[in-house]
Amino acid sequence: MRRKMLVKAVVITAAAVLLLLAGLLLLRNEENREYAEHRDSMTEGFGQLKTVSWNGKTYREKPAVTTLLLAGIDKTDNTEATGSATYRRGGQADFLLLMAIDHTDKKIHQLQIDRDTMTEVDILGVFGNEVGTRILQICLSHSFGSTPADNAKYTVRAVQNLLGGLELDGYYIIDYSAIPVLNDALGGVTVHLDFDMTSVNPEWEQGKDITLKGKEAETFVRTRMTIGAGTNEERMVRQGEFMRKAIQQMNRRISADLSFGEGLLKTLEGITTTNMITKRLAEELNKVHNYEILPIDHPAGEYSIGTDGFVEFHMQENAAVEWVLEHLYTPAD
Question: Which of 2, 34, 82, 319 sits in a 20 to 30 Å window from 28, CA-based?
């Protein structure tokens, strides 16, 4: 059902670079990790589990899968913020993608999380102290905290809550200003127009293939209200198209020159927040550039308008947990 969104949601997607960096995660050291046997609950952290029981079935964690949270941030700087506002100015996580990188099967699974997904989010008080949680749009999780590292921490927590306690291996968070940089570094990304976009560019007619240049890439992935029904759901389709085409170009560039990935990473260092090291990121990028990248999964759910007038996406119960079990675990029976 096509719905008119009432909330301004400027989607910043560094989706392409984020996906291209999916393999840039420090691999989990399986030999040195200790696991605790756990039964009947998904809320204490998949990362500490070797087996788990769910709906009467037992699942065993795959031996060589790494998880990476990729996020694109929309931030409007407010230099005059005071009081509690100083701890709530991190911007919104308008693009969220969970990558599950299976090094055994050489496949990369993707779960895109709608920015308006309702989940448990940590709340900070006037003095920056944690004062509990509320059910909010997951994009708001990044707004809390006074530093980029804090913002990232609360976003990771919110995603882990949504995923039933899954412990993530790493995160890579990037500002929207990287989109033109990324696009031009790849030589311009060529995308297919599934929607009529002549409202933002008279040459962007539905059905055309266009090569994006500079700020055009940002326009393609950000614009929402004037395209189609104006929904975030439709915009996520364009994000996926940009990602897919950018990945293809990235893979070709790395195949021709293994130093390309590291050069791009260094270019983006000043506008990213991550718990990973550039040199190791580049090594892993080179390692996984020929992995099969599977289509993006979107969990089932429903949109509605909240009592505050803003859009909410209510994910189908257990949809995220079941995705984790399908891609990070195997039946143990």
Answer: 319
